[in-house]
Write a structure and sequence with these properties.
Length: 232
Amino acid sequence: MKITWFGHSAFRLDFADKVVLIDPFLSGNPSFGGDVTTATAGVTHILLTHGHGDHVGDTLAIAKETGALVVSNYDLLMWLASQGLQNFSPMNTGGTVDAGGFHVSMVRADHSAGMVEAGVGFPLGSANGLIVKAPGEPVVYHMGDTDIFGDMALIAEIHQPRIGLVPIGDRFTMGATTAALACRRFFRFDTVIPCHYATFGLLDQTPDAFVAAMAGSGTTVLVPQKGVATAV
């Protein structure tokens, strides 16, 4: 599997014949700085953790251009369908769907989910984390936007993720110290990639504190260059 980080919480997973975008906030993302067409070339799937604009991002435009299947919670997808989305697979917390060649499970996250930018102040479903399971590949857990919570232990037991995509930027999610505690206490990750930092001035600007807090854990912390694929 190749994992590309586009800044904030936007990732691209390349495996087998699949190209999966998670939370594709590209246009207007000050930490992206790449080319949207190049970043989204060949996309087959888009997975969304929740309905905030900095996570839904370019979903509608990318889906229209590529025909990618969009997987997210029912409420958010029904709203996106009202905006023109046609190819989608709805689910909700605790569920698993066959996305065609891999499975997606939706797990809890502690966060809000209203798209205030679009005039939708009420929740577009729950905020969630996503588990991606593909044959022959390590299980990936994108935590979404979240705080630490004790049921992370159950997520670890049920899904046994080996790669964690972990928000560390504080203020709107866990900060570095709490995120490291979550990784060390509840999971047996081989690799973690920190995200949701440095995008805006309100967030922590570097992953340094997280890297330091993970020292000695036995888990590899990858801080990839934005837009450069990292084989995992």
